[in-house]
Amino acid sequence: MAKYQKLLEPLKIGNVELKNRFIMLPMTIEKVDNYHVTDDLVDFYEQRAKGGVGLIEIGSCYVCDCFGTEPKYHTTTGACGCWDDEFIPGFKRIADVCHPHGAKVAAQLQLCYEWRASGDDPLLSYAPSADVPSGPFVGMPEREYTKEEIAQVVKQYGEAARRCKDAGIDIIEIHAGIGYMVMRFLSKYSNHRTDEYGGSPENRARLLTEIIDEIHKTCGDDMPILVRISADDLMPDGNRIEDTLELIPIIEAHGVDAWSIQAGFHEAPRPVANQIVPEGEFIGLAKQCKTVTSKPVFPGTRINTLDMCDKVVNEGYGDAVGMARQFIADPATAGKVAAGHPEQVRPCIVCSRCLDNIFIGKPCQCSVNANVWQGVEVGLPEDHPATEQQHVVVVGAGPGGMEAARVAALRGHKVTVVDHSDRVGGLLNMAQVLNANIEPLVSYWQGEAGLHDNIKVVLKQDVDVDYLKSLNPDQVILSPGGGIIPIDVPGIDGKNVVKSEDIKAMCNGVVPEGKGMLWKAAVAAIKAQGGTVGFMRMGLNMATGPTAIVGKRVVVVGGGFAGLEVAEAMCDNREITVIDPAKKMGNGIGIIDKNPTINLLKKKGVKLMPSTELIEVTKKGAKVKNVETGEEQLLECDTVLTSVGVEANTTLYDEVVKVWPHAKLIGDATTPAGKVYRTLEAVKGGYEASMAI
């Protein structure tokens, strides 16, 4: 069997047949208008249906009235309302655009941490037991459910399911995971009740089984029911896999057709979805769940590559595979596999920028797919062909420039991309050495340019106004990269100082200016190895010996996104200290990744020194000062490594705009003071620039 082919085999959930085993997991995309489905949300799901996904799950279909409220848990505001018949047309719109492409649709019925019986009551935080804190932003529960209120919750789920069925939804999912309301009843951590809804497994499952029974009453036994559950909730004294294996048969006896397996609570001390979590970390939970059920089971936590999907279905970890972020990154993931071109899949880099927004109630965004943010307002390039072909010159082959080129080419323009480096990718070429999750994105861009006959890439070419004139462009888009934030202290140009721009140059096959034979030898070795990322990664991790560029004791100057990434990538077998004048580390890291990243660094022995600035580099190391107390000290080290990020860079633009007044500047070159721009901002800038032509 050819690689990935089992992922294309059909699968039945109840009486509903999926055309393949790709399942788009539910996420709260935050594309609603006062809980109503919008054109943007319909378009979002239609793209994934066109892209070949077998089952699309609509995230967070809220079962209780939230009109006119201000939920403490921000994600609730992005839910699709399901508590009134007025929402049926919106769900029908989603079903009607997905079905013609062969995709089935599930609606995920949801209660997070807040509830009310009707629109006349206040929205309050509820829980099975009032003595356990609720999830993020909510604090201690304001109410503990009475049995009468539980009965009302059950009725709300049943009516919500009926509305979904009336709208043409194929499958009902009950969210019983990640610490939301149903899971809080299931978990021994959060359920301390002593009545028939607490204590034994049967009692803790009672809310869920009553919901299932009610859905069968309102929708009939032929409506497939899917349960999404945290097989290990990762909470102290909570449910372990052994508890879940006991719960599944109890719940399934009431009529469950498939199981979606995840892990954790949102507030769990152990992260589950970040880059720092190894891919496939929790697929074994699904495999264990398969031992107690004959129904389809699929894992759906921290999976983003086709190779991992293939492992899941071929090695018995699951009957299908659930992903959300990968289908955000590339709606056509499944379709590209079916067409025999998996190498063309645009990869999710697990940066969590989508979750950063969703978690605080803002519309979904994506670092590699700007259309997720722009939606129907800007549209897709293939739907907006140019009325007149123009010659678009893009300066810079980083992610912003390459995205600008891709979009312009799809719209029918002739594109020339020019870069001074010997390869496409820009800063991503350095980033992939530090972070393996970036490597597939560089490969994607290397291949993408070759798919468009109207894109010409010119490398190893410096650019000025005269050169641009020789190309005779109609439009110019500049993505030259940010300027280096200067560090002006004594000794900063010493031999024991390695600057981020030095590493960038080396990764691009260039000997950094002012560096001697050691660097020349390193660059020559990289070129001899074909510029392989693995070889470069090995070289940077070499802390001792005559060819070591970065020594064993390192002071990293810069505690923002870039500095912490460098520290994490190089900390094995090294003693690393990170300094930053800010009171808190992690500027540029979002809410999802910041604390886990800092905690990981501490666990790995990295010393973090906020409120500390570099005042001098000596032969012995870095002389620093506490910005609050004025206290100075010498941090003895072998290497001072600067990684303070970049700033705005308008040098070339200021000259170019005199000749081409409509020239556009994008990417790191537009970074505001004090901010950190990453791949997301670059790609968004490139997308917008070419869509505006």
From TrEMBL:
Keywords: Flavoprotein, FMN, Iron, Iron-sulfur, Metal-binding, Oxidoreductase. Residues 6-343 form the NADH:flavin oxidoreductase/NADH oxidase N-terminal domain. Residues 391-655 form the FAD/NAD(P)-binding domain. The keyword Cell division does not apply. Its cofactor is FMN; [4Fe-4S] cluster. In the N-terminal section; belongs to the NADH:flavin oxidoreductase/NADH oxidase family. PANTHER family: 2,4-DIENOYL-COA REDUCTASE, 2,4-DIENOYL-COA REDUCTASE [(2E)-ENOYL-COA-PRODUCING]. This is FAD-dependent oxidoreductase.
